[in-house]
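Consider this:
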Amino acid sequence: MLSQYMEEFEQEPFEVGEFIERLTWRTNNELQNSEDFNPVALHDTFIQTIKDLKILQEKQQSKCERLEESLHQEQDSHAKKISKLQERHQTAIDWFGQLDEKINSVAGKIMHLGEQLENVNTPRSRSVEAQKLLSYMSEFLMAGPVIVNDVFTDPLRLNEAADVIQKLYAISQDLPPGNFAESKRKIEKKYDEVERRLIEEFAAAQKSEDIERMKSLAQILSQFKGYTQCVDAYIEQSQMQPYSGKDIFIGIVPMCKHHYEIIKKVFANPQQVMSKFILNIYQLKLHQYAMTKLDDKKDEEKYLRTLYELYSRTLKLSSDLQVYMSTIDDDLLHKLTQQIFMKNLAGYAEIELKCLTAKCSSELEKFYASKKHQKTQTTKGFRRNMEVLIATRANINIAAIEDYGGETFLSEELAINMLQEAKASLKRCRLLSSEAELPGNAIKLNDILLRFLMHEHVDYALELGLQAVPLAEGKVFPQLYFFDVVQKTNIIVHLLDKLCNSSVIPCVSNTPKYSDYVFKKRILMEQIETKLDQGLDRSISAVIGWVKVYLQYEQKKTDYKPETDVDTISSAACLQVVQSLQPVIVQIKKCVDGENLQNVLTEFGTRLHRIIYDHLQTMQFNTAGAMCAICDVNEYRKCIRELESPLVTQLFDILHALCNLLLVKPQNLQEVCTGDTLNYLDKSVVRQFIQLRTDFRVIKNTNYLKGIIE
């Protein structure tokens, strides 16, 4: 059992409650033949288990004590070993200190000996070198031609020859010019010859890409006065290769990156050499390339595109090459760029303004030519007003309205083309104009756009559209094209705003020119809005005027006062009006947007309500006619629901309630008048409608109208 207990104790996790449960379960299984529960047997099992567990505890305790004793013995053994190792380590440290002292002593003696040897050898070496120089010098001091020494003729001894002639040249500079003039001339000639050979050797090493030889020769030439010729030779030979065909910009950065790695290895002053390398690219290669490309100014648009492309790519090139420039030359590339394009930038603005003017003018001419339209002076405002006055007073139409067959003379495509041209011009302007000139140039370009797009195109189309709106109170349903003018004008204005926000405002913000821009735009928008409002008002008046005339001539008195019983249906005049108005409402909702849409729909519905209200005031209604009037008003209500105007809906609801006064029995008039809809109306309005009843004379002296007509 003890082994079984150990297995259970070693299980993870061990739970005491589960152990007791298992013990109880085993005891009950052993007594499964018994019919009743035997607590005594369970008690005996628990007592025996407790005894077994005590025995197991004693065994485990004894085992733990043995393990602890073994552990203490091992600790003592390891402690003794560590103590011995520490003693040996200390002994090694002592020996190392002694060895270090001996090494330092020997090193000191060696250094002293070396200094003594150097002190002895240096004068000797100098004497030997001086002797050689004197022997070489003697050859140049002799009269007659110079006896060529092997050191100056042997190509393999070029380095030695360079060292000798450089020192001889330095010595010759201190000789008096009188007696030694010939000797100095000979030395200078040989100096130039050796220098030329070194440069030629350097160029040959560069062609064979022998970096080590180039480095050695560059180091030697750095002591010569023609060192700059070595640098120039390297730059000239490096840039002799074509720059990636016709596009010079593609190959410059890779070429500079490649040669910068070589320059760092070859020259002692790589930053200065690299600056000169890049300077040569700008002053010779780029300048010549730009002048060639910009030489032809006949096609101004092409010239401007080329100038923008070259200038922008040169700026990007400068940014890419700045990493190779020294901190002293931070703004050198910017100055070089300005020098290349100075002449072109000085006259840029004038060409840009001229080009944009020509493009916009050409676009307008092509548009009107495609419409076969000849622009005329729009000075018909006074004539239009006189026509309205005469038509109103004399009830005649003295002239036909020219509507150009529904042509609006507004083109989104034309506007987009102009805006694209202006956008390209403003983009070039931001890059090519100086900081001081940028706001003024941007305003001038914007003025050109506003002149051609808004004044000569949109404003002209609005004037034509205003003249094309039919006169009010015509007998024929008006053909309305001004709503299309409104739609296209709104689209063009939105496109213009988008361009101004993205291209114009960034150029003039935080400058005095910004207020000038805002003022001009506000004046322009006010003019456009005034003409749009005027045209919308005329269009609504034309439609409502037609409704008035049509109902006046087509609505029969018998529609609302039939002599016999008829079917209760809407009148033909009402149905025709509703049928004609529905397309107008659809057109308004299609062409007008934003807050203006709700205002126009409300104004339209309000005027329609006034016309119908006044029209009903001219009629007399019996019971059958009142039913027809209510049907008519219901048709009007269905129609005006499309306006989605709470005010108009309320007005027609009230009109419907007023029409109910024409139908109800006389004894119910008081109740209807005090209802929710009519209770707050002026009593005179209610009284006017009640007077339209054919039985009014009968009921006016009764008590049914008490409090209404008094």
